[in-house]
Amino acid sequence: MPEMTTAQDVLDTPHRRGSVGYRRITLALFAAGLATFVAMYCVQALLPALTDAFGVSPAVSALAVSVTTGVLALAIIPASVLSERYGRTRVMVASALASSVIGLLLPLSPTIEVLLVGRAIQGATLAGIPAVAMAYLAEEVHGNDLGAAMGRYVAGTTIGGLLGRVVPSGVLDLGSWRWALESAAAVALVCSIVLMRGLPRSRFFREQRIDARTVLSNLRGHLADPTLRILFALGFILMGGFVSVYNFLGFRLTAAPFGLPQGIVGLIFVMYLAGTWSSTAAGRLADRMGRARVLLASVGITVAGLALTVPDSLPFVLVGVFLFTAGFFAAHSVASGWVGRVATTHRAEASALYLCAYYLGSSIAGALAGVAWGIAEWAGTATFVAGLLVVAILLALRMFRVNAGSDRKVTA
């Protein structure tokens, strides 16, 4: 049965699963994940169309994704600092609304250069949501239910990633890339309004006036923790591999031997639903079975999925993308939730470091994957991502050896 709470419990204890506050938080953060990923990846399904419209190479059009995630990564730590001063909810809401407005203006871009500059600005305004969401959840949700709550937030990012790709891809069949991009911006705006209206105020946040020296000291403290260092590295590697695959998957499926039309290729992003389920399930399993075991299994599924995408067989590719997506989001859900458990102080900075690494992986690896594609197309991209995942397996094994059956910090 859901836990019964009194008015005093609501004031004095973190939200537990089944409470009204927990439901409001997870719904609002689900909408936040939607808004963020719709805005961030709405151009990914349009990369072949941008290549044709502006007469640029696939590697150049892919920068429309990389510049956004790269600038977002650099802005995450400043955004987390602002949240320490002005509050978690205020920063998240302002970030969502500002990025949505910029998204509505992006379809007016006359050149690829203007589009890339606009996408960079949008990345900066988006930073406030991922920079703060993890810290907000860690502060407001009871530790025993944090994995499940984080899983729901990550599930929102998966649905956002899906809508951010499927909606513009579907509109592209009826109009230009400009209308396709505008439709995605409208979806992000609706999600931002849901976040603004539904997000409960922080109850355990305490305003802090911090200076640059304090921030650097907090960051150094987190970087000195061996568990956090591994989690940051995993965020970089896993997100880098994930974005690399999805950036160039459309180019592969529209070319020989598949030759699929753009509208059909856009449906491949329905595979994000695998991540919606796996992120939530992994969060619950991590709470019950231990994060180390679930993390290692999730990375293994990611590797298996990538291997299946290599043969020139559409059924193999589809199954492979399904497993790859499910494994990635499960691993991310576990790793991001683990950061909130390990960092018992200055959580905003810890979350910011994880997400800085996460989105730098998207930007840097996504750009390098363009070079790999130019050398050997899908074989080159898959080989590049495989190299990243080998390192991810080694890191996950390290976490398993030291932390199996426990969520305590690494002590060696």
Automatic annotation (TrEMBL):
Keywords: Cell membrane, Membrane, Transmembrane, Transmembrane helix, Transport. Belongs to the major facilitator superfamily. The chain crosses the membrane at residues 25-47, 59-79, 91-108, 179-199, 230-249, 255-274, 294-310, 316-340, 352-376, 382-400. GO terms for molecular function: transmembrane transporter activity. It holds the Pfam family MFS_1. It is found in: Cell membrane. This is Transporter. One of its GO terms (cellular component) is plasma membrane. It is a multi-pass membrane protein. CDD domains: MFS_NepI_like (cd17324). It comes from Rhodococcoides trifolii. Residues 25-404 form the Major facilitator superfamily (MFS) profile domain. It comes from the Bacteria.
